[in-house]
Amino acid sequence: MPTFLRPSTRLARALSKSGLSSSKPSFACRSLLILLLSAIWLSTPALAQSSSQEYRAYEDALAQGSRHANLWQVGWTSVYAGSLAVNAWQASEASDADDRFDARVGVVKSALALGGMLLDRQPHPAAYREWRDGEDDIQRARRLLEAVAEEERARRSLQARLGSLAVNTIAGLTIAVGDGRERDGAINFATGMLVSELQLQSQPRQATSAINRFQPARVSFGDVHLEGEYAWLVGPSQLGVALRY
């Protein structure tokens, strides 16, 4: 939890090991201690509010992610439903035999994609409902957002592309080998992979962006080593850094 209300136990132990807390500290050590304590005291008013700012940032990320997920769900479901309807009509009504064959392949691809949209929902709406129903606890908020961010990363991973790769490869080979049209099979494969990639890249990523606000940091003063995280705080009337250790 971001706070500067008291020095950490780790800092005290590090100071003790380095000799900064000895009974007769040197002038340089005393100056360093005074500098550190002054920085802590001066930073307390601004950084004491950083936890509430972090909490609001997480809440905004989940709210925006939920809206984005709903729009993404409706948009791509409509695309695949429309594609399924058009392909189903062309499979029987198209005047050209090649078009009818391609449309039958398209029916299978569109049906699989539509089923995936209906069965595999984005995590953001459910996470946002859980957020609103739970307690205002920053640790719980971090755990919830980290879980959503992990799901976002998984949905853009190489493994997430394997399903579309398999479907489009089979569809392309069906046209190229099964119907003897190599060029049309290659175009079908490339078009399907492009649409699949657009679908993946247009997914919500607000949780990942919010988590990445805090970056790891390590500060050393001689034998004293402090590890934690930092994030820039930018607002209409403030510019600062929040530290978390």
Q: Which helices and strands, and how do they pair?
A:
Layout: H1 9-18, H2 27-47, H3 50-93, H4 97-119, H5 124-133, H6 138-154, H7 158-178, H8 182-201, H9 206-211, E1 215-221, E2 224-235, E3 238-244
Antiparallel strand pairs: 1-2, 2-3
Helix pairs in contact: 3-4, 3-5, 3-6, 4-7, 7-8
In words, what does this structure look like?
This protein is mostly helical. It is 70% helix and 11% strand. The chain contains 9 helices and 3 strands; from the N terminus they run H-H-H-H-H-H-H-H-H-E-E-E. The protein has helices at 9-18, 27-47, 50-93, 97-119, 124-133, 138-154, 158-178, 182-201, 206-211, and strands at 215-221, 224-235, 238-244. It has a 3-stranded antiparallel beta sheet with strand order 1-2-3. A hairpin with a 2-residue loop joins strand 1 and strand 2 (224-235). Helix 3 runs antiparallel to helix 4 (97-119), helix 3 runs parallel beside helix 6 (138-154) and helix 7 (158-178) packs antiparallel against helix 8 (182-201). The longest helix is centred in the N-terminal third of the chain and has 44 residues, at 50-93. It is elongated, with a radius of gyration of 28 Å. It starts with 8 loop residues before the first helix and ends with a strand. The relative contact order is 0.13. The model is unreliable at 1-12, 14-25, 37-49 and 232-239 (pLDDT under 50).
